[in-house]
Amino acid sequence: MNATHPAPDAGHATHDHGHDHQHGHAHDACCAPKSPSPLPAAGADAGLARFRISAMDCAVEEAEIRRAVQGIAGIQALRFNLGQRTLAFDAPAAAIEQALQAIRKSGFDPQPVADAAHAGPAEPRGHAHDHEHDHGDAGLRRLGLALGLAIGAELLHFFAPDLPLWRGAGLLLAAIAIWAAGWGVYKKGLVSLRHGRLNINALMTVAVSGAFVIGQWPEAAMVMALYAIAEAIEAKAVDRARNAIQGLLAMAPDVAAVRQADGTWRDLPVADVPLQAIVRVRPGERVPMDGTVEEGNSSIDQSPVTGESIPLDKAPGDPVFAGTINASGTLQVRVTAAASNSTLARIIHAVEEAQATRAPTQGFVDRFAAVYTPGVFVFALAVAVLGPWLFDWTWLQSLYKALVLLVIACPCALVISTPVSVVSGLAAAARRGILIKGGVYLEDARKLKAIALDKTGTITEGKPRLVHWALVDTGADRARVERLGAALAGQSDHPVSRAIAQGLDATALHVTGFQALAGRGTQGQVDGAAYWLGNRRLVEERGQCTPALQARLQEHEQAGRTVTLLASDAGVLALFAVADTIKPSSREAIAALQALGITPVMLTGDNQATASAIAQQAGIAEARGNLLPQDKLDAIKALQQQHGPTAMTGDGINDAPALAQADIGIAMGAAGTDTAMEAADVVVMNDDLRRIAETVRLSRATHRVLWQNITLALGIKAVFLVLALFGDATMWMAVFADMGASLLVVGNGLRLLRVRMQG
Known about the structure:
Elements: E1 49-53, H1 59-69, E2 77-81, E3 86-90, H2 93-105, E4 110-112, H3 137-159, H4 164-194, H5 200-213, H6 217-242, H7 246-249, E5 255-259, E6 265-269, E7 278-281, E8 291-295, E9 298-301, H8 303-306, E10 312-314, E11 319-320, E12 325-326, E13 331-335, H9 343-355, H10 360-390, H11 395-408, H12 412-431, E14 434-436, H13 439-444, E15 450-454, H14 455-459, E16 460-471, H15 478-489, H16 495-503, E17 512-517, E18 521-526, E19 529-534, H17 536-541, H18 547-558, E20 562-568, E21 571-582, H19 586-595, E22 599-603, H20 608-618, E23 622-624, H21 629-642, E24 646-650, H22 656-661, E25 664-667, H23 674-679, E26 682-684, H24 690-726, H25 731-750
Parallel strand pairs: 15-22, 15-24, 22-23, 24-25, 25-26
Antiparallel strand pairs: 1-3, 1-4, 2-3, 5-6, 5-7, 7-13, 8-11, 8-13, 9-10, 9-12, 14-26, 16-21, 17-18, 18-19, 19-20, 20-21
Helix pairs in contact: 3-4, 3-6, 4-5, 4-6, 5-6, 5-11, 6-25, 9-12, 10-11, 10-12, 11-24, 11-25, 12-24, 12-25, 15-16, 19-24, 24-25
């Protein structure tokens, strides 16, 4: 990795990550503050000129490229995607050409991406073709050769330091080793020095050249060989974090069986399958594209999209998502989204967009590195010049110690410690069906003190169910009353009537003369007798609401139930209580949030009695009902003042003002729902409320790993700075220490891919 200064200020004219945030978070150059930014299509940059820069490993290279193009007229926006190592320009052709020339002068080699729509998450990330990161077989052989030559130079210098012939042979071996391992480093280091940038390439160029000049050529060769090998290992480890989410996209097939006009089936690349086409998915196969089931019944494993491993039953009309697994029957699916814009591709693209933003800790590290690197360079220069005067060192000893300090000064481990941890955290969340739209939200979730939860569809199932029915006329025939209720309810499309019809296990009777009574219910005739199915108002108008019945109605209404009554000319026969029931996981989810020290509060537009009843069932102490969108917004402000950082959980549509006001907005059950995806900062792809507690745990784990990495990187450097000054630290030991620290922080960050998110 090439470490240097952080990105320029957020006001840079060419900076654009597609966010339009207005409030709520401290942020740095690449981290826009909070807003309900949309989830972009997978090919969102397809209309821009797009280039791949193989040497662009992290945000520090991004900063160098930004400085290179700064001031070029005509560039409207730059869109960096560090995960794919790509840069998209929104600019006229002349400005793009001028920018490319400036980027090449800075030591980078941008190559055009011919088809942006197909250069998405599935693009290969190997570097066998990159000369800065040649980690293929040829590159590994070259690094092995360089290490062997460096060891040979060390042996010749150790066993025959005074023989001119062997000394000359050792010098030649060292020079070849440096060229084989460090040509790319030298090339970029000289460019950096010419532009006054103190990055790792510049530091290594100065250190190795200086060691060679003062006669430490075997050590110079060993340093360059070890550095190059460690860089290759580190790059592969970092790519593992970058590519952690890519395995999801690989789950979607490349080919789909498409029904032709004559009824035959033909295999076509998914990129060529048009919308509304019918594709066939056999048992055991993966669904190739997003769509709706046209024919067939089966169960589908949706874990790649929602993180939920329990298969869901699918019937005609149900949605299915690309990459999910058909477990049993054959399905015919009508395609509703192009392969490049499937829900899975959009999730991955959103994660990669999130990787392009900096978390708060990463911003701190970048700012620290911007001061640290030149500071140590100046310190090393002071050691070289003042060492003989202050410590009675020889000039060669002082210069050598200064060169060791330059190697130790590399901020590589420090700078890489944060992005690899953030990327790993984002990928771990995505694997669980949790889409976090930026590192800032991944970090800030740990700070939450309160969470506001919408009722319908979040805590509850979101649809009414028959939870209780009983005879009012105890002398009536229960079986016949049940059939009468099913008959009248089955004639209406009102949600409450449908819930009653579905909940009654009875064969409906034949109804004649059916008619709806606006705002009150329905009426009809069965076997020549008239019956009514309606609310309290209907029964009161008919004069059939007795004091005993009123007491029973009040009991159900206080429990948050909607009561429908079945009546005849003789009186009320039965009552049916319908309610929106809580999800089985809601009580467990609320308990998990409380165990994390987060106060849950229910905010709903339903009446207060219903809100209190549902809150009591879920274990929530405070519930506020009868709230309009503006009321929810005011409630979020009050919670922020009372508790501190507050999240809002809702459906992403009616709750948009509250979601925007909250420190973190969370949309529930958003698989395939664009509106919900656009509204929130965190998207739970299924409707499992337990994922919120998992997000908080992951945030806390990520924060711990970030500061472990920072402490580790700085601690190792502090130890070797002391050894370099007052001990016997050598250059190759310094390389081992620096690259070892880099590998340690990368490995520690990768632990987040396996973090236990459940309580």
